[in-house]
Amino acid sequence: MAVPHGRSLADFLPLKPAEQLLLKHAALGGMTEISTQRPTDATPSNTVRAGFLRFLILGGDDLNPVHELGVMLKGAYVEGDLELRQTQIDVSISLHHCCLQNLYLRGSSIKGMIDLTHSSCKKVRADLMSVSGTVCMDKLIAQGTMILQRSKIAGSLLFRGSQLDGTGEYALRAEGMVAGNIYFDDGFTALGEVRLVGTNVEGQLSCNNCRFIATKDAALSADAIRVHGSAFFSSGFHSKGTVKLSGARIEGQLSLKGGYFEGGSHKSLLMQDVRVGGVLILTELVKPLHNAAFSGSHVRTLHDDTKTWGDGLGLNGFTYDFLTTEAPLKAQDRLCWLDQQIPANTGEDGLKGAESKFRPQPWRHLQRVFEDMGHAEEAREVGIAFEQRLRKVGLIGQAPSNWPRGLQWLYRLPAILLHSLYGLFTGFGYRPMRLLAWFFGTWLVCTSVYWYAAVEHKVFAPSNPLVFQNEAYASCPPEYGEAWQRQHPAAERPADIGNWYTCKALRGEYTGFSPGAYSLDILLSLVDLQQEKDWGPITPTPFPGYWDELKNLEWGHGIRLLIWLETLIGWGISLLLVAIVSGLTRRKE
Q1: Distance between CA atoms of 98 and 433, rounded to whole angstroms?
Q2: Are 312 and 288 in contact (CB under 8 A)?
Q3: How far apart are CA 387 and CA 395, in angstroms?
Q4: Are 239 and 219 in contact (CB under 8 A)?
Q5: Range with the poorest average pLDDT among 69-73, 414-418, 465-469
Q6: Judging by beta carbons within 10 Å of its beta carbon (0-12, 13-18, 19+), is residue 91 exposed, middle or buried?
Q7: Were 278 and a residue from 160, 253, 256, 416 both cysteine, which residue would form a disulfide, CB within 3.0 to 4.6 Å?
Q8: How large is the C-alpha radius of gyration of the chain?
Q9: What interhelical angle do 50-57 and 17-28 show, nearest 10?
Q10: Which pTM was predicted?
């Protein structure tokens, strides 16, 4: 029966010395050791023709079968391209310390493993390949783009200590690949972009003690990668160029602990629309993350430290359920983190109002997480800082955009004023006890002024005409005191005449003037202590001209203005107090 060329031993006779040795050991299932070192040049004693190696990998022929353990060769120089495209390989392939030219495995199906440990190869084309075991490329030196697109590897894909040089192009293309585990460890180096876009990893992805060096903009592209275990870019990971993980789905943890993300003039890390089912670890980075984007991503837990973050961050839409750090959680540290975003998103670009690109989501989400974790004080600090930032970027009191500019300003100014007073009095509802301090402060100041005005300037008098028109109290009005002083110019006026406040003639059953109670009665608009009803300041009859009125201002005028001001403050405090008690002042919209 005729067989294709290259499928019979007779097609390769006479055999070279290394081929004779390989034929013998392939039948016995043993390792054919030509040398313990990888050769750099072909010699008569170390050369194996690629066609003959293919003959054995495909099982040999009826008279020269290959052992079930597969073809194992060490220290050989493989002459020519090893062509295994669209083949069914039923044995494992182990080529240790071998020097290969080009390896073609496109569309091949291998029942076993591929082991190229310590070997070198110019090109590897293995897209659409299917391997039931592990693909080991430890310590492999490869020139040109290695292609593993849409391959299926049931075991692990190992690149421990390998060196991939894309010679100005991609170092590795493995888009759409399926693998059990992927390891880029132990000194792995890639010169050129490594592409794992859409790759499905059933176990874990490990990138420790490795270097990804971009020749263009991206060092590692793993957009839309799916990792059913955990992913590690830590412990010696170093990227020169952008690391792209946008759209990734990682069911376990994602660790960037101890990594070095060096983006240069490009983004250092793109993690947009990422989902991490476990912890995102961002600690002990060699250099803070600059120009990194996390927009639209969600992680179960964010674990970081104060040295993690650099400038130019994209955090809009970034959500997390928990925050953990080695040090105590501090709101100020988190506010500094938010201020390290892109200037436009923090409102630091100078644009105001509708033109501002300020993004409130990172602030509101941080506040909500603090609240959910029970860090109430930190949540309040973030809430206050957020309100202050809204005012800074002109987002308080925004009028409809179709209004004339003049009307918009008339709309905004009162809103800004009220918002400022709201922050001053209550910390935007997050510091309600501050309202009590303002209350007691106002009460104490006004009480002192009323007392001084009553004692020294005789400003207050009873408002009941049955009292101030009663002849029994004729010695109490200031006019009586002034008349007495004119009659006795050399004597000191007695304190109990000419002053309603200190007048002893005033009967005890009438409500006496109390500066403290009077001030409290004005402040507490809903409470009647009878002071404001029974007493009032003495103000002279107004002059017909404004200028005359201004020239003749007296203490009575000032006290009347102070009473009006205190009344307004009292109403404001009362309304804010009611709002705080009812919970209406906590901004949720």
Answers
A1: 78
A2: no
A3: 10
A4: yes
A5: 465-469
A6: buried
A7: 253
A8: 43
A9: 10
A10: 0.83
